Amino acid sequence: MFKIHLHIYAPENFMDRQVSVPIELPFVPQKGDYLFVPEELILKLEEKAKSELEIARRYAPKWFYRKSFDVQLPAEENLPDLSFADAQTVHAVAYHANSDIIHVEITD
After folding, report:
1. What residues does 3 pair with on adjacent strands?
2. Among 93, 87, 19, which residue's Cα sits nearest to residue 57?
């Protein structure tokens, strides 16, 4: 099994380390692959993104829905509208020297 840190695509923050979860897969996904992530992991990623307003703002407006879909600079009241539920396509894969952890970033 490969050790992978799963990240959500944020245009201004490649492989955001503050919003990632460790997973294991029997293969290394490639860009364009579909990766179906269990809901509990998506919820953990959302929880990490919503933990601080500045972190959540990295994901605007792409990952904000409902009444906040076009908000460029979200406020606290917009946080419930942040959702990574549509994230399933591998956007990028990164390897680090001298590390057995592979970083995978997914998008919609």
Report:
1. 24, 101
2. 19
Tell me the residue type at 12. Answer: E
CA pair distance 25, 83, nearest whole angstrom: 24
With the CA atoms of 78, 80, 82 and 85 taken in that order, what torsion angle do they form, in degrees rounded to the nearest 10?
-160
* Neighbour-count burial of 66, counting CB atoms closer than 10 A to its CB (0-12 exposed, 13-18 middle, 19+ buried): exposed
The distance from CA 56 to its chain's CA centroid, rounded to whole angstroms, is: 11
| pLDDT mean by block of 10 residues, the chain; 108 residues | 96 92 96 96 97 95 88 92 96 94 97
CA–centroid distance for 98 within its chain: 24
